[in-house]
Amino acid sequence: MNKSILHCAVISPMFSYGNQKLELRPTELKGIMRYIYRIANHSVDTKLLYKVESKYFGDAEEHASPVRLQMKVAGIKLGLQPLLLHKPIDDKNKKKPHFEIGTTFDVVIRTLFRANKDVDEKPHEWYKELVLLSIVLGGLGKRTRRGRGCVTTTELTQKNNQQLLMWVTDHLNEINDNKFLYEIKNGVIVAVADLSRFKRPVIEKIEIGKEIKDINAFLESVDEAAHTIKCTWHKRMPDDKFATGFVVPKRDSNGSGRFSSSVIVSVTQTSDGIFPIYTYVKAIYNSSPLDIDCQERDEFISLIKGGLH
Questions:
Q1: What secondary structure letter does DSSP report for 141?
Q2: Using only C-alpha atoms, what is the Rg of the chain?
Q3: Sign of CA dihedral 289, 209, 42, 141
Q4: 261 Cβ partners below 8 Å, 6+ apart?
Q5: To 5 degrees, how large is the angle CA 249–CA 254–CA 255?
Q6: Cβ distance 282 to 262 under 8 Å?
Q7: 114 falls in which pLDDT band (50, 70, 90)?
Q8: Is the dihedral of CA 245, 247, 252, 254 positive or negative?
Q9: Where are the domains of the chain?
């Protein structure tokens, strides 16, 4: 068994619950790891992708997970804040308990290697790096695609922005067996491979935004931009199919559901400061692409940036 410990600190309000109570949930972190692995992976064969993913992370049928995660709170700071900062506080937008910025916790990573040498396995360091990549591109709890629940670690704060971009690019390519499918162009990580063949979400590009001076002002700008983009694009998209997320109409599904935003806004901290990370994921709904030219998502990000002026 191999073991690593990451010392983490919350850098944006975290609304993470278990049984209606604030709780750090290892299963949620592993879920993010699986998702990031999936959208970074350039396997066109989805059945093969699921089969490989099950080997690396476990499944309910054949494979026990080779990686075990444990989260230990070190220093708790609790607060109350509404989920939507651009709206007035009322019965629909109540203040909710959350882990405040400055809460610290440890992530303990253990890997158990199996005796069956025929099973392809990843080394312990691969899982550790994937945990770090996952918390750069995502968060824990509610509204994680809108900048909530983000954390940092000493491993990340020791890197500057350029080093972070290079590290993210290298790990995306490592997930793809070190094929050069992503590279940095003009300060933005972009997929240089042909993504037109994919009928599922896959990372298109990743950009670091301008330094965040006031995290609550930034998150309010994100919430306002998310509201405005729906109002703006509703006139252009009468069927309400937004690349930035929408509720699935009941006529299109067996029940209510949602299409998660295909642009993820997260927050990270480097030696240069605290910055937003904008991750564009190919927008696919029922095998059909949305926002092919990224106009909607680019406008959404522009609204965020404009709201901070």
A1: S
A2: 19
A3: negative
A4: 145, 146, 226, 243, 244, 245
A5: 60
A6: yes
A7: low
A8: positive
A9: 2-307
Q: Which two tokens stand for residue 91?
A: 């019965």
In sequence order, the β-bridge partners of residue 284 are: 289
Question: What are the tens digits of pLDDT across the range 199-239?
Answer: 999 999 999 999 999 999 999 999 999 999 988 887 777 67
Tokens of 85: 């900062």
- What tens digit of pLDDT does each residue of 159-194 get? 999 999 999 999 999 999 999 999 999 999 999 999
- Residue 268 burial (C-beta neighbours within 10 Å; 0-12, 13-18, 19+): buried
pLDDT digits (tens, 9 = 90+) for 65-83: 889 999 999 999 999 999 9
**What is the C-alpha to C-alpha distance for residues 259 and 245, in angstroms, rounded to an integer?**
5
Count, residues in the chain: 309
Tell me, what DSSP letter sits at residue 135? H
Identity (one letter) of the amino acid at 268?
T
